[in-house]
Amino acid sequence: MSNLLASQPARTLLCGLVMLSGVAAFATGAQAQSQTNAQTLTKDNGAPVGDNQNSQTAGPGGPTLLQDVHLVQKLQRFDRERIPERVVHATGTGAHGTFTATDDLSDLSKARLFAKGTVTPVFVRFSTVIPGRSGAETTRDPRGFATKFYTQEGNFDLVGNNLPIFFIRDAIKFPDMIHALKPDPVTNVQEPERVFDFFSHVPEATHMLTRVYSNLGTPANYRQMHGSSVHALKLVNARGGYVYGKFTWTSRQGERNLRPGEIAAVQGKSTSHATVDLYDSIAKGAFPVWDLTVQIIKPEELDKFDFDPLDATKVWTGVPQRKVGTMVLNRVPDNFFEATEQVAMAPGNLVPGIEASEDRMLQGRLFSYIDTQHHRLGANFQSLPINKPLVPVVNNHIDGAANTSGRTGRVNYEPSRLAQVKEDPNARSSQLPLAGTTQQARIARTLNFQQAGEFYRALPAQERDDLIANLSGDLKRVKNQDSLYTMLSHFWKADADYGRRLVKAVGADGAKVATLAAGLKE
Fold it and tell me: What are the coiled-coil residue ranges (predicted)?
């Protein structure tokens, strides 16, 4: 019995080797079959690759040869895999879907996109604003909510955020604001000292700062997040009449945000939690849905408000929402880079029936966004598949790097008798009455603090507590007392309780802040 037991391990090992050799033979056969069906690896010129494992060398111990075209090409292409990242909105994710116009908007806009029953393909890119590429999706930051509509009249880009307002009202301050919010150029760390040094000079930012430091500044995911055009656009009807409209995306999944104590736990598991959530939802067939509504103000009503309705730091309180349609996201891009990274959203991509308003922040974005896409992607970026309109593009924009338009013919100008193209009177711009002189001056009705106070008072008690905790945590890190007290006075001016709670949280002098706030004007 002992001898039998002693030989048992050897027999077991032998059986195991026989089984393994059988598995290996099966695997070898499967691999051979797989290689038979596999595509042949090629260089960029289409020529087959003979050896993708070893470089060409001068003998077994000599240097690598420059004539190894395959090696050189792999390194060249690898070195150029990255394009310039977006200065803002670098971290993002995207999805394809459709927009269906459920209500007739023809009395307001001649855009065929808004004709009841029209179904339009869309691509949506969600993003954070300040972090560089691959930043954490838990960052306290506005979220980009940009939608490209591939309409029957060309592409229309609705380029907005999850929050309905912005920090500043004039695009001339945009580079300064972003510089202040970006990492310190010395330490490469975002510093509240720099952030509030800047915003202490920008009282109109009080409203946006209040929203960003509320839990709205840390959405739980993209599905449960609302969106806004932020700016008013002009809607022009077939008669040439126009109104101003602000668009809102309302998530049918509801709205959910992260509380202060949840952020670290979520980020500790994944820095891309919102992307994972969106893609997992689509993969399961639980397609996220948003309803699009619009608020309308007539030109003659602009002066009836105690603020400027074309000021991007303001919401249109009390102006009713009108249903436009519904969007469903139902497909994840096949290639992240070719879609989400190369998609070029721009507020200047408009179609007949939709125009830019006189909003000063929007006016600057009309240039800036198109310009940054030219810098990132080259002159022919609108020919890339993700940006290419569904309708034919007919113009005399020619050549440039990576031009694949396939243009033919001798005439690349207009007008011409040799090759005629026509204008479309329906696409002519509306007419805006003007008065006065050229100027450089701020808007007349600023109302810098009131809406911040209204927002604070509308928050539930728990969310007010979270706002105070979030905001005071950064204010405590501000060493410059002038910056600190100026910021505290702005929040006090918005709402005295808001200011008092922040003063207590940071250990400041309440009487001094109250005096500063009393000297502020809306």
Answer: none
How does the average pLDDT of the chain come out, rounded? 92
Identify the pLDDT of residue 203.
98
The burial of 402, by beta-carbon neighbours within 10 Å (0-12 exposed, 13-18 middle, 19 or more buried), is given as exposed
Residues marked as catalytic: 89, 161
Res. 8: pLDDT tops 50: no
The backbone torsions φ and ψ at residue 329, rounded to the nearest 5 degrees and listed phi first, read: -100, 120
| pTM of the complete model | 0.90
Which residue range is the domain that position 500 belongs to?
Answer: 450-518
Question: Does an H or E element contain 94, and which?
Answer: strand 92-101
Hey, what are 348's tokens? 């200047």
* pLDDT tens readout for residues 488-502: 999 999 999 999 999
Tell me the two tokens of residue 100.
């269906």
* CA distance linking residue 300 with residue 92, whole number of Å: 39
pLDDT score at 28:
52
364 and 457, same domain (yes or no): no
Looking at the predicted structure, is the pLDDT value of residue 418 above 80? yes
Please give the full DSSP string across 382-407, using - where no structure is assigned: GGSTTT--SSPP-S-----TT-----
Q: Interior CA angle at 464 toward 463 and 467, to 5°?
A: 85
191 and 340 inside one domain: yes
Q: For the chain, what is the domain count?
A: 2
Looking at the structure, tell me whether residues 381 and 472 fall in a common domain.
Answer: no
User: 382 with 511, same domain?
Assistant: no
Element (H, E) at 251: strand 242-251
- Verify that 294 and 367 share a domain, yes or no: yes
Tokens 């009836």 belong to which residue? 304
Whether 379 and 454 share a structural domain? no
Please determine, for residue 454, whether its predicted confidence score (pLDDT) is greater than 80: yes
Nearest to 209 by CA among 443, 486, 444, 479: 486
Residues 193-238 have pLDDT tens digits of 999 999 999 999 999 999 999 999 999 999 999 999 999 999 999 9
Q: What is the CATH number of the domain that holds 378?
A: 2.40.180.10
Say how far apart CA 162 and CA 140 lie, in whole Å: 12
CA pair distance 122, 117, nearest whole angstrom: 15
Does residue 313 lie within any of the structural domains?
yes
State which amino acid sits at residue 99: F
Residue 30 pLDDT greater than 60, yes or no: no
